[in-house]
Request: fold
Amino acid sequence: MEKYLYKPLSGSYNLIMAYPAIEEFALASLGYLWLYKIASTTEGINAVRSSTDNIPSVKNAGSIAFSMSFDFDFIGVFETLEKMDIPLYANERDENDPLVFAGGPVITTNPRPYEAFFDFMLIGDGEESFKKILDILKNHSKRKALELIKDLEGVYIAGSPAKKATVGLQEVIYTPILSDKGYFKNTFIIEIARGCMNRCAFCTASYTNLPFRNYEYEKIIEAIEQGLKYTNKIALLGAQISAHPRFNDIMKYLENKMDEGINIELGISSLRTDSVSPDMVRTLVKGGQKHSTIAIEAASERLRRFINKNLKEEQILNAVKIAKENGLKGLKIYSMIGIPTETPADIDEFLRLGKLIKDENKGFNIEFSFSTFVPKPHTPLQWSKREDTKSLENKQKYLEKEFRKLGIASKFSSAKWDYWQSVLSRGGSELAPFLAEVYKRGGKIGAYKSALKDLDIKVKDEFELDELLPWDIICMEPGKERLISEYNRLLRRI
Ligand code: SF4
Reply:
Protein backbone atom coordinates (compact mmCIF):
# COMPACT_ATOMS: atom_id res chain seq x y z
CA MET A 1 0.00 0.00 0.00
CA GLU A 2 1.19 3.46 -0.87
CA LYS A 3 0.25 6.67 0.83
CA TYR A 4 0.92 9.96 -0.90
CA LEU A 5 1.53 12.74 1.62
CA TYR A 6 0.74 15.36 -0.99
CA LYS A 7 -1.65 15.88 -3.85
CA PRO A 8 -0.14 15.03 -7.23
CA LEU A 9 -1.16 17.05 -10.27
CA SER A 10 -1.44 15.86 -13.80
CA GLY A 11 -0.46 17.43 -17.09
CA SER A 12 0.17 16.80 -20.73
CA TYR A 13 3.99 16.63 -20.68
CA ASN A 14 4.97 13.04 -19.90
CA LEU A 15 8.07 12.77 -17.72
CA ILE A 16 9.29 9.36 -16.65
CA MET A 17 11.11 9.41 -13.34
CA ALA A 18 13.25 6.31 -13.57
CA TYR A 19 15.03 4.57 -10.75
CA PRO A 20 17.64 2.16 -12.15
CA ALA A 21 16.94 -0.61 -9.63
CA ILE A 22 13.93 -2.39 -8.18
CA GLU A 23 10.96 -0.52 -6.74
CA GLU A 24 11.77 -1.56 -3.19
CA PHE A 25 14.93 0.58 -3.41
CA ALA A 26 13.26 3.38 -5.38
CA LEU A 27 10.77 3.77 -2.54
CA ALA A 28 13.66 4.05 -0.08
CA SER A 29 15.55 6.74 -1.99
CA LEU A 30 14.73 10.09 -0.48
CA GLY A 31 16.39 12.09 -3.28
CA TYR A 32 14.51 10.22 -5.99
CA LEU A 33 11.15 10.44 -4.24
CA TRP A 34 11.56 14.11 -3.49
CA LEU A 35 12.31 14.98 -7.12
CA TYR A 36 9.34 12.86 -8.13
CA LYS A 37 7.25 14.93 -5.75
CA ILE A 38 8.57 18.14 -7.31
CA ALA A 39 7.73 16.84 -10.79
CA SER A 40 4.30 15.56 -9.86
CA THR A 41 3.31 18.85 -8.24
CA THR A 42 4.47 20.94 -11.20
CA GLU A 43 1.62 22.16 -13.32
CA GLY A 44 1.60 20.73 -16.82
CA ILE A 45 3.75 17.69 -15.95
CA ASN A 46 2.53 14.12 -15.86
CA ALA A 47 5.23 12.40 -13.79
CA VAL A 48 5.35 8.61 -14.00
CA ARG A 49 7.51 6.44 -11.77
CA SER A 50 9.63 3.65 -13.20
CA SER A 51 11.89 1.04 -11.64
CA THR A 52 13.53 -1.99 -13.23
CA ASP A 53 10.81 -4.36 -12.03
CA ASN A 54 8.03 -1.99 -12.94
CA ILE A 55 8.69 -0.19 -16.20
CA PRO A 56 5.59 1.64 -17.40
CA SER A 57 4.62 1.82 -21.01
CA VAL A 58 4.18 5.49 -21.71
CA LYS A 59 3.34 6.74 -25.15
CA ASN A 60 4.86 10.08 -26.10
CA ALA A 61 7.26 10.45 -23.18
CA GLY A 62 8.86 13.90 -23.40
CA SER A 63 11.81 12.94 -21.25
CA ILE A 64 13.22 10.35 -18.89
CA ALA A 65 15.06 11.37 -15.73
CA PHE A 66 17.31 8.83 -14.00
CA SER A 67 18.57 9.02 -10.46
CA MET A 68 21.93 7.24 -10.04
CA SER A 69 23.08 6.52 -6.51
CA PHE A 70 25.47 3.60 -7.03
CA ASP A 71 28.28 3.01 -9.51
CA PHE A 72 26.65 -0.06 -11.00
CA ASP A 73 23.35 1.69 -11.64
CA PHE A 74 24.20 2.06 -15.33
CA ILE A 75 22.99 -1.52 -15.79
CA GLY A 76 19.51 -0.52 -14.61
CA VAL A 77 19.62 2.58 -16.84
CA PHE A 78 20.36 0.48 -19.93
CA GLU A 79 17.78 -2.11 -18.96
CA THR A 80 15.13 0.60 -18.68
CA LEU A 81 16.06 2.24 -21.98
CA GLU A 82 16.16 -1.08 -23.80
CA LYS A 83 12.77 -2.15 -22.46
CA MET A 84 11.38 1.20 -23.57
CA ASP A 85 12.90 0.67 -26.97
CA ILE A 86 15.08 3.76 -26.74
CA PRO A 87 18.64 3.70 -28.14
CA LEU A 88 21.31 3.69 -25.41
CA TYR A 89 23.57 6.33 -26.93
CA ALA A 90 22.30 9.92 -27.00
CA ASN A 91 23.60 10.43 -30.54
CA GLU A 92 21.57 7.46 -31.79
CA ARG A 93 18.31 9.02 -30.62
CA ASP A 94 16.30 11.42 -32.75
CA GLU A 95 13.62 14.09 -32.39
CA ASN A 96 10.98 11.44 -31.71
CA ASP A 97 12.82 9.92 -28.78
CA PRO A 98 12.50 11.45 -25.32
CA LEU A 99 15.32 13.49 -23.82
CA VAL A 100 17.23 11.31 -21.38
CA PHE A 101 18.99 12.87 -18.42
CA ALA A 102 20.39 11.89 -15.03
CA GLY A 103 21.49 13.16 -11.67
CA GLY A 104 22.41 11.76 -8.27
CA PRO A 105 25.60 11.13 -6.29
CA VAL A 106 27.26 8.99 -8.98
CA ILE A 107 26.78 11.65 -11.64
CA THR A 108 27.93 14.44 -9.34
CA THR A 109 31.08 12.53 -8.42
CA ASN A 110 32.05 11.84 -12.03
CA PRO A 111 29.66 12.07 -15.00
CA ARG A 112 32.33 11.30 -17.61
CA PRO A 113 31.83 7.52 -18.10
CA TYR A 114 28.10 8.10 -18.64
CA GLU A 115 28.07 11.24 -20.76
CA ALA A 116 27.53 9.48 -24.10
CA PHE A 117 24.21 8.07 -22.88
CA PHE A 118 22.53 11.20 -21.56
CA ASP A 119 21.46 14.42 -23.22
CA PHE A 120 22.48 16.27 -20.08
CA MET A 121 23.27 15.60 -16.45
CA LEU A 122 22.70 17.38 -13.15
CA ILE A 123 25.72 18.01 -10.96
CA GLY A 124 25.22 18.71 -7.28
CA ASP A 125 21.97 19.55 -5.51
CA GLY A 126 19.17 18.79 -7.93
CA GLU A 127 16.11 20.40 -6.42
CA GLU A 128 16.48 23.94 -7.79
CA SER A 129 17.91 23.06 -11.23
CA PHE A 130 15.24 20.38 -11.61
CA LYS A 131 12.44 22.91 -11.15
CA LYS A 132 13.95 25.18 -13.81
CA ILE A 133 14.44 22.23 -16.15
CA LEU A 134 10.81 21.13 -15.79
CA ASP A 135 9.69 24.62 -16.64
CA ILE A 136 11.78 24.60 -19.80
CA LEU A 137 10.88 21.05 -20.84
CA LYS A 138 7.13 21.52 -20.73
CA ASN A 139 7.26 24.76 -22.73
CA HIS A 140 9.73 24.03 -25.52
CA SER A 141 10.62 21.63 -28.26
CA LYS A 142 13.33 19.11 -27.49
CA ARG A 143 15.99 21.05 -29.39
CA LYS A 144 15.11 24.43 -27.92
CA ALA A 145 14.85 22.93 -24.42
CA LEU A 146 18.38 21.55 -24.67
CA GLU A 147 19.69 24.92 -25.77
CA LEU A 148 18.14 26.61 -22.72
CA ILE A 149 19.03 23.87 -20.25
CA LYS A 150 22.70 23.77 -21.14
CA ASP A 151 23.30 27.22 -19.64
CA LEU A 152 21.76 26.45 -16.25
CA GLU A 153 24.07 26.15 -13.28
CA GLY A 154 24.64 22.52 -12.31
CA VAL A 155 23.98 21.17 -15.81
CA TYR A 156 26.68 19.18 -17.57
CA ILE A 157 26.56 18.31 -21.25
CA ALA A 158 29.26 15.99 -22.61
CA GLY A 159 32.55 17.81 -22.99
CA SER A 160 31.48 21.29 -21.76
CA PRO A 161 32.79 22.54 -18.41
CA ALA A 162 30.13 22.77 -15.72
CA LYS A 163 29.82 23.99 -12.15
CA LYS A 164 28.23 22.05 -9.31
CA ALA A 165 24.92 23.45 -8.06
CA THR A 166 24.69 24.11 -4.32
CA VAL A 167 21.44 25.16 -2.71
CA GLY A 168 20.65 26.72 0.65
CA LEU A 169 18.47 24.33 2.63
CA GLN A 170 15.01 25.79 3.06
CA GLU A 171 12.07 23.41 2.81
CA VAL A 172 12.84 20.18 4.72
CA ILE A 173 13.07 17.12 2.52
CA TYR A 174 11.13 14.12 3.78
CA THR A 175 9.65 10.90 2.39
CA PRO A 176 6.67 12.08 0.33
CA ILE A 177 5.29 8.60 -0.36
CA LEU A 178 5.01 6.03 2.40
CA SER A 179 4.86 2.44 1.31
CA ASP A 180 5.08 -1.04 2.78
CA LYS A 181 6.88 -2.08 -0.41
CA GLY A 182 9.88 0.16 0.31
CA TYR A 183 13.11 -1.19 1.78
CA PHE A 184 12.43 0.93 4.87
CA LYS A 185 8.78 0.05 5.26
CA ASN A 186 6.47 2.99 5.96
CA THR A 187 9.38 5.01 7.25
CA PHE A 188 9.23 8.78 7.25
CA ILE A 189 12.80 9.83 6.52
CA ILE A 190 13.76 13.43 7.23
CA GLU A 191 16.94 15.02 5.94
CA ILE A 192 18.23 17.16 8.78
CA ALA A 193 21.62 18.09 7.35
CA ARG A 194 23.53 17.78 4.09
CA GLY A 195 27.22 17.05 3.72
CA CYS A 196 29.83 16.72 6.41
CA MET A 197 32.44 19.19 7.56
CA ASN A 198 34.94 16.55 8.64
CA ARG A 199 36.47 16.12 5.19
CA CYS A 200 37.89 12.64 5.64
CA ALA A 201 40.29 12.37 2.72
CA PHE A 202 38.45 9.59 0.87
CA CYS A 203 34.91 10.78 1.41
CA THR A 204 32.71 11.94 -1.46
CA ALA A 205 29.73 12.42 0.85
CA SER A 206 31.73 15.22 2.40
CA TYR A 207 33.73 16.64 -0.52
CA THR A 208 30.99 16.69 -3.14
CA ASN A 209 28.50 18.20 -0.70
CA LEU A 210 30.48 21.08 0.69
CA PRO A 211 29.69 23.25 2.49
CA PHE A 212 27.92 21.44 5.33
CA ARG A 213 24.38 22.78 5.66
CA ASN A 214 21.52 22.04 8.01
CA TYR A 215 17.80 22.76 8.20
CA GLU A 216 16.35 25.00 10.85
CA TYR A 217 15.34 23.22 14.04
CA GLU A 218 11.74 24.49 13.87
CA LYS A 219 11.30 23.17 10.34
CA ILE A 220 12.62 19.76 11.33
CA ILE A 221 10.19 19.60 14.24
CA GLU A 222 7.36 20.56 11.90
CA ALA A 223 8.38 17.72 9.57
CA ILE A 224 8.52 15.24 12.46
CA GLU A 225 5.02 16.28 13.49
CA GLN A 226 3.80 15.86 9.95
CA GLY A 227 5.36 12.39 9.66
CA LEU A 228 3.85 11.27 12.96
CA LYS A 229 0.39 11.89 11.54
CA TYR A 230 0.97 9.01 9.14
CA THR A 231 3.48 6.61 10.68
CA ASN A 232 5.39 5.90 13.88
CA LYS A 233 8.63 5.13 12.02
CA ILE A 234 10.84 8.20 11.90
CA ALA A 235 14.40 8.22 10.55
CA LEU A 236 16.83 11.12 10.58
CA LEU A 237 19.15 11.39 7.61
CA GLY A 238 22.40 13.17 6.90
CA ALA A 239 26.08 12.29 6.55
CA GLN A 240 26.80 14.01 9.84
CA ILE A 241 23.50 14.52 11.61
CA SER A 242 25.02 15.00 15.04
CA ALA A 243 26.78 18.10 13.68
CA HIS A 244 23.38 19.78 13.50
CA PRO A 245 23.77 22.63 15.99
CA ARG A 246 20.53 21.54 17.70
CA PHE A 247 20.85 17.80 17.31
CA ASN A 248 20.50 17.21 21.05
CA ASP A 249 17.32 19.29 21.09
CA ILE A 250 15.89 17.25 18.22
CA MET A 251 16.64 14.05 20.10
CA LYS A 252 15.20 15.51 23.30
CA TYR A 253 12.03 16.49 21.43
CA LEU A 254 11.63 12.92 20.19
CA GLU A 255 12.35 11.54 23.64
CA ASN A 256 9.72 13.79 25.21
CA LYS A 257 7.19 12.58 22.67
CA MET A 258 7.99 8.98 23.60
CA ASP A 259 7.68 9.86 27.28
CA GLU A 260 4.24 11.28 26.55
CA GLY A 261 3.32 7.77 25.41
CA ILE A 262 3.64 8.30 21.67
CA ASN A 263 5.06 5.20 20.11
CA ILE A 264 8.01 6.19 17.88
CA GLU A 265 10.34 3.79 16.13
CA LEU A 266 13.43 5.89 15.63
CA GLY A 267 16.09 5.18 13.04
CA ILE A 268 19.53 6.71 12.71
CA SER A 269 21.82 4.95 10.27
CA SER A 270 25.09 5.49 12.06
CA LEU A 271 26.46 7.29 15.09
CA ARG A 272 29.38 9.64 14.90
CA THR A 273 31.99 7.97 17.07
CA ASP A 274 33.25 11.12 18.77
CA SER A 275 29.81 12.36 19.65
CA VAL A 276 28.05 9.27 21.00
CA SER A 277 26.43 10.37 24.25
CA PRO A 278 24.41 8.49 26.89
CA ASP A 279 21.33 10.63 26.16
CA MET A 280 21.52 9.97 22.45
CA VAL A 281 21.84 6.21 22.91
CA ARG A 282 19.03 6.09 25.47
CA THR A 283 16.71 7.91 23.07
CA LEU A 284 17.61 5.50 20.29
CA VAL A 285 17.00 2.52 22.53
CA LYS A 286 13.69 4.00 23.67
CA GLY A 287 12.87 4.32 19.97
CA GLY A 288 13.38 0.60 19.47
CA GLN A 289 16.91 0.59 18.03
CA LYS A 290 18.94 -2.42 19.16
CA HIS A 291 22.08 -2.10 17.07
CA SER A 292 23.91 0.76 15.46
CA THR A 293 27.06 1.47 13.49
CA ILE A 294 30.13 3.55 14.11
CA ALA A 295 32.71 4.21 11.42
CA ILE A 296 36.35 4.21 12.45
CA GLU A 297 37.74 3.72 8.89
CA ALA A 298 41.09 2.41 10.17
CA ALA A 299 42.35 0.79 13.36
CA SER A 300 45.72 2.46 13.55
CA GLU A 301 45.87 6.03 14.71
CA ARG A 302 48.59 6.74 12.14
CA LEU A 303 46.31 5.78 9.25
CA ARG A 304 43.36 7.62 10.70
CA ARG A 305 45.55 10.72 10.91
CA PHE A 306 46.54 10.29 7.29
CA ILE A 307 42.95 10.10 6.08
CA ASN A 308 41.95 13.03 8.30
CA LYS A 309 39.70 10.86 10.45
CA ASN A 310 40.89 12.51 13.59
CA LEU A 311 39.58 9.98 16.01
CA LYS A 312 41.49 8.83 19.07
CA GLU A 313 41.35 5.24 20.25
CA GLU A 314 40.03 6.48 23.55
CA GLN A 315 37.03 7.97 21.74
CA ILE A 316 36.30 4.66 20.02
CA LEU A 317 36.47 2.73 23.28
CA ASN A 318 34.33 5.33 24.95
CA ALA A 319 31.69 5.19 22.21
CA VAL A 320 31.40 1.40 22.53
CA LYS A 321 31.18 1.64 26.30
CA ILE A 322 28.43 4.28 26.15
CA ALA A 323 26.52 2.23 23.56
CA LYS A 324 26.67 -0.84 25.77
CA GLU A 325 25.94 0.85 29.08
CA ASN A 326 22.93 2.66 27.71
CA GLY A 327 21.11 -0.28 26.29
CA LEU A 328 22.23 -1.07 22.74
CA LYS A 329 22.74 -4.79 22.15
CA GLY A 330 25.57 -4.42 19.69
CA LEU A 331 27.57 -2.25 17.35
CA LYS A 332 28.86 -2.67 13.85
CA ILE A 333 32.28 -1.14 13.49
CA TYR A 334 32.82 -0.05 9.94
CA SER A 335 36.30 0.22 8.50
CA MET A 336 38.41 0.02 5.35
CA ILE A 337 41.43 -1.87 4.20
CA GLY A 338 43.79 -0.89 1.41
CA ILE A 339 44.13 2.75 2.42
CA PRO A 340 47.30 4.17 0.81
CA THR A 341 50.41 3.73 2.98
CA GLU A 342 48.78 0.85 4.91
CA THR A 343 51.30 -1.63 6.35
CA PRO A 344 50.91 -5.14 7.84
CA ALA A 345 51.21 -3.52 11.26
CA ASP A 346 48.14 -1.38 10.46
CA ILE A 347 46.21 -4.54 9.63
CA ASP A 348 47.24 -6.17 12.91
CA GLU A 349 45.95 -3.10 14.72
CA PHE A 350 42.41 -4.27 13.88
CA LEU A 351 42.99 -7.45 15.86
CA ARG A 352 44.48 -5.63 18.80
CA LEU A 353 41.62 -3.12 18.84
CA GLY A 354 39.00 -5.84 18.34
CA LYS A 355 40.35 -7.83 21.26
CA LEU A 356 40.51 -4.76 23.47
CA ILE A 357 36.90 -3.84 22.68
CA LYS A 358 35.75 -7.39 23.24
CA ASP A 359 37.57 -7.73 26.57
CA GLU A 360 36.21 -4.41 27.82
CA ASN A 361 32.62 -5.12 26.73
CA LYS A 362 31.81 -8.74 27.51
CA GLY A 363 28.42 -9.87 26.23
CA PHE A 364 28.13 -6.96 23.79
CA ASN A 365 27.79 -7.85 20.11
CA ILE A 366 30.60 -6.49 18.03
CA GLU A 367 30.96 -6.97 14.31
CA PHE A 368 33.72 -5.52 12.17
CA SER A 369 32.57 -4.66 8.69
CA PHE A 370 35.14 -3.91 6.02
CA SER A 371 35.11 -2.44 2.57
CA THR A 372 38.22 -1.83 0.51
CA PHE A 373 39.49 1.65 -0.26
CA VAL A 374 38.07 3.01 -3.51
CA PRO A 375 39.70 6.28 -4.61
CA LYS A 376 37.04 8.84 -5.51
CA PRO A 377 37.09 12.02 -7.61
CA HIS A 378 37.13 15.44 -5.94
CA THR A 379 38.77 14.09 -2.79
CA PRO A 380 42.42 14.51 -1.69
CA LEU A 381 42.97 10.81 -2.40
CA GLN A 382 41.66 10.99 -5.97
CA TRP A 383 45.15 10.36 -7.39
CA SER A 384 45.95 7.39 -5.16
CA LYS A 385 46.77 3.91 -6.29
CA ARG A 386 44.12 1.31 -5.73
CA GLU A 387 45.70 -1.76 -4.13
CA ASP A 388 45.85 -4.94 -6.14
CA THR A 389 42.76 -7.16 -5.67
CA LYS A 390 44.74 -10.30 -4.80
CA SER A 391 46.63 -8.50 -2.08
CA LEU A 392 43.38 -7.09 -0.63
CA GLU A 393 41.80 -10.53 -0.66
CA ASN A 394 44.78 -11.92 1.22
CA LYS A 395 44.33 -9.27 3.88
CA GLN A 396 40.62 -10.09 4.09
CA LYS A 397 41.33 -13.80 4.53
CA TYR A 398 43.91 -13.08 7.18
CA LEU A 399 41.59 -10.79 9.14
CA GLU A 400 38.67 -13.18 8.86
CA LYS A 401 40.74 -16.06 10.20
CA GLU A 402 42.26 -14.07 13.04
CA PHE A 403 38.96 -12.45 14.04
CA ARG A 404 37.35 -15.88 14.12
CA LYS A 405 40.05 -17.04 16.54
CA LEU A 406 39.19 -14.07 18.73
CA GLY A 407 35.48 -14.90 18.53
CA ILE A 408 34.67 -11.60 16.79
CA ALA A 409 32.35 -11.48 13.78
CA SER A 410 33.71 -9.86 10.63
CA LYS A 411 32.25 -9.09 7.23
CA PHE A 412 33.96 -8.03 4.02
CA SER A 413 32.93 -6.34 0.82
CA SER A 414 33.94 -8.00 -2.43
CA ALA A 415 37.39 -6.70 -3.37
CA LYS A 416 36.64 -7.65 -6.98
CA TRP A 417 33.48 -5.57 -7.17
CA ASP A 418 35.21 -2.73 -5.32
CA TYR A 419 37.88 -2.80 -8.02
CA TRP A 420 35.29 -2.30 -10.76
CA GLN A 421 33.74 0.45 -8.69
CA SER A 422 37.11 2.21 -8.67
CA VAL A 423 37.40 1.81 -12.44
CA LEU A 424 33.99 3.41 -12.98
CA SER A 425 34.58 6.12 -10.36
CA ARG A 426 37.73 7.42 -11.99
CA GLY A 427 36.91 6.68 -15.59
CA GLY A 428 36.50 9.04 -18.51
CA SER A 429 34.37 9.07 -21.64
CA GLU A 430 36.45 6.21 -23.06
CA LEU A 431 34.49 3.85 -20.79
CA ALA A 432 31.20 4.31 -22.70
CA PRO A 433 31.61 1.33 -25.09
CA PHE A 434 32.86 -0.73 -22.17
CA LEU A 435 29.71 -0.01 -20.15
CA ALA A 436 27.47 -0.87 -23.09
CA GLU A 437 29.41 -4.09 -23.62
CA VAL A 438 29.25 -5.09 -19.94
CA TYR A 439 25.49 -4.66 -20.12
CA LYS A 440 25.25 -6.67 -23.32
CA ARG A 441 27.24 -9.47 -21.69
CA GLY A 442 24.88 -9.68 -18.72
CA GLY A 443 26.50 -7.35 -16.16
CA LYS A 444 28.01 -10.10 -14.00
CA ILE A 445 31.57 -9.74 -12.78
CA GLY A 446 33.02 -11.87 -15.60
CA ALA A 447 31.46 -9.49 -18.14
CA TYR A 448 33.58 -6.59 -16.84
CA LYS A 449 36.80 -8.49 -17.22
CA SER A 450 36.10 -9.91 -20.65
CA ALA A 451 34.65 -6.66 -22.05
CA LEU A 452 37.68 -4.66 -20.94
CA LYS A 453 40.03 -7.16 -22.51
CA ASP A 454 38.12 -7.51 -25.77
CA LEU A 455 37.71 -3.77 -26.22
CA ASP A 456 41.34 -3.23 -25.28
CA ILE A 457 40.53 -0.37 -22.93
CA LYS A 458 43.34 0.68 -20.62
CA VAL A 459 42.44 1.47 -17.05
CA LYS A 460 44.65 3.74 -14.97
CA ASP A 461 44.89 2.79 -11.32
CA GLU A 462 46.94 5.79 -10.28
CA PHE A 463 47.16 9.40 -11.46
CA GLU A 464 49.88 12.07 -11.37
CA LEU A 465 49.21 15.23 -9.39
CA ASP A 466 49.88 17.42 -12.42
CA GLU A 467 47.89 15.49 -15.01
CA LEU A 468 44.51 16.48 -16.37
CA LEU A 469 41.85 14.24 -14.81
CA PRO A 470 38.65 13.28 -16.65
CA TRP A 471 36.47 14.97 -14.00
CA ASP A 472 38.49 18.23 -13.90
CA ILE A 473 35.86 19.52 -16.30
CA ILE A 474 33.50 19.79 -13.32
CA CYS A 475 34.15 22.75 -11.11
CA MET A 476 33.46 22.34 -7.42
CA GLU A 477 34.92 23.68 -4.22
CA PRO A 478 37.52 23.28 -2.78
CA GLY A 479 39.10 22.80 -6.24
CA LYS A 480 42.16 20.95 -7.45
CA GLU A 481 44.86 23.24 -6.01
CA ARG A 482 43.44 22.93 -2.52
CA LEU A 483 43.01 19.17 -2.88
CA ILE A 484 46.70 18.92 -3.78
CA SER A 485 47.77 20.95 -0.77
CA GLU A 486 45.47 18.88 1.47
CA TYR A 487 46.96 15.69 0.05
CA ASN A 488 50.49 16.99 0.76
CA ARG A 489 49.47 18.07 4.25
CA LEU A 490 48.13 14.59 4.95
CA LEU A 491 51.31 12.96 3.69
CA ARG A 492 53.26 15.04 6.19
CA ARG A 493 51.10 13.67 9.01
CA ILE A 494 52.21 10.05 8.71
S1 SF4 B 1 32.85 11.69 9.16
FE1 SF4 B 1 31.89 10.26 7.71
S2 SF4 B 1 30.66 11.52 6.34
FE2 SF4 B 1 32.08 12.87 7.41
S3 SF4 B 1 33.85 13.09 6.07
FE3 SF4 B 1 34.28 11.42 7.48
S4 SF4 B 1 33.59 9.55 6.44
FE4 SF4 B 1 32.64 11.31 5.39
